[in-house]
Amino acid sequence: MRPGALSIAGMLLVALLGRGAPVFAAESKVEVQIGKVQALVTSKEKPRTELRKAIGSELAELLILVLPKETPPAQVLGVVDLCLFYRRADPDPWLHDKMAEILEQLRDTHGDLIADHVRKGLKNEPDWRVRDWIVRLVASLAPPDRFAFFSATWDRDVNPYVRETALEMVGEHGLRVDENQVDAIMRVIGDAEQDWQRHVAAIRALAKAARQSAAPVTRKAAQKLAAQVAEAEWSPRQRELVAALRRLTGAGSLEEHAPFQRRAEYWRRVMEFDSRNRPLADLSLKGLAPTPGPTLFGRPIVERRALFLVDISESMLAPLDRGDVDKVAREHWADVPAARVAETKTRLDAVCLELERAVNAAPGAQGFTVVVFAETAAALDLRFLSTNDDRAKLIARLANVRAGRDPLRPGGISNLAAALDRCLALDTSGTETRADQLSDYNRRDGPQAIYLLSDGDYTTTPFVGNHNAFVADFQGVNRYRRLVVHTFPLPGAGAARSFLSHLATETGGAFTKVLK
């Protein structure tokens, strides 16, 4: 243990637990154990993997000491404040998860005490990430007045992500809501000042919570959501509205709602290929043909602003097996001249041909851009292009990249981390902004989805070989943008298919095999 660790822990606990609460003896086992954890967490002498193992062991010992019901409140709250302190001070997500596990295991014996303590501290907590964590913690502790706490948080917290989390927790933990609470959630859905991510969180919360409640509440929620469907604009919000209606009203009954009936054909196309890939057979809409529109290897592109992320690393120049080309042609390229199919020799050739088909089939309301990546990533155009002339220029430049006639040339290894960072920074104003510095404007008006076309795994990140860590790191930054990533493993992807499937699932996107 490093010198001074115990005294630092002691001073921290005295400062945090003052307020007239009894402070436990300086030599108590709990304080000694907190000192050990503090010393390990702040240590720079061991590799992180060794430290994590040691920290996990000491935290387990600490938990054993504070689990008994007769543990003095000051000692329990000392552990709580230690957890919050490190949630604020240390960026390691592994440590955050461990601290959360400790507090969750204290729930049965000291849940009310912990919930009351952290809720009192929420108002004066300066770090929004800690406030966000507190909201999730209160949800897991299940105090009796959770809805009032969540409602106050989504109304008053200055940070949009904390407000969004408060909404998510209503549905996540199966709260039963009454008519007044339905109205409170509907006010968020109908508030034009809220961005679509918060609308989606409120829609999900209402659908999940109302299902736990009495039938009249469910009917009222369904009527209100049906009215919202009639006014919905083209965005991810639409899919959530219809999915929520389906959960609330049951199979086959959505057609009773006139607003839904008027737009059923469009909804069929959107929902048939939603992020959960559930067909609409249960909605009795089998007779409705999908609306024609752009597709990418058979999957409709429904977003208003779509970003194509194209791998141009060395492996993408590998020749395609002729049988694979013929199979893709049979499945997707019935309208492509045979001579053009014959020119498709490499994986990158196939991607360029498919993107050209998708862009040419899109209506004027849709905008596209392309980001290519190998060791570095570059946007072919920072704008989302919707006019035919602009799209033609975009496709022509991509063809030049493929042919080696552009300063951006294929080759090298694939740095997907840099490519995803570049995508998160794009917005419709033709500029790039760090994801954690996005304004409300360019958060709403940036890309709505990434379509990732690649034949392999990432190779140049700190997380090589650890798919879970890679996706968790991306999702940490993606929280500011909330982009879905649809993945399309090309022939030759091999073992990378499992990673691409995981990335799509975790972001709410779809995993589509180019060759079935």
Report Rg: 26 Å
The strand line-up of the biggest sheet is 5-4-3-6-7
Class derived from helix and strand content: alpha/beta
Tell me how many strands there are: 7
Low-pLDDT segments, ≥5 res: 1-26, 251-291
Mean pLDDT: 75
Largest sheet: 5 strands, mixed
Question: What order do the helices and strands follow?
Answer: HHHHHHHHHHHHHHHEEEHHHEEHHHEHEH
* Number of helices in the DSSP assignment: 23
What is the end-to-end distance? 57 Å
Beta-strand fraction estimate: 5-15%
Give a summary of the structure in a few sentences.
This protein is of the alpha/beta class and 516 residues long. Helices cover 55% and strands 6% of the residues.
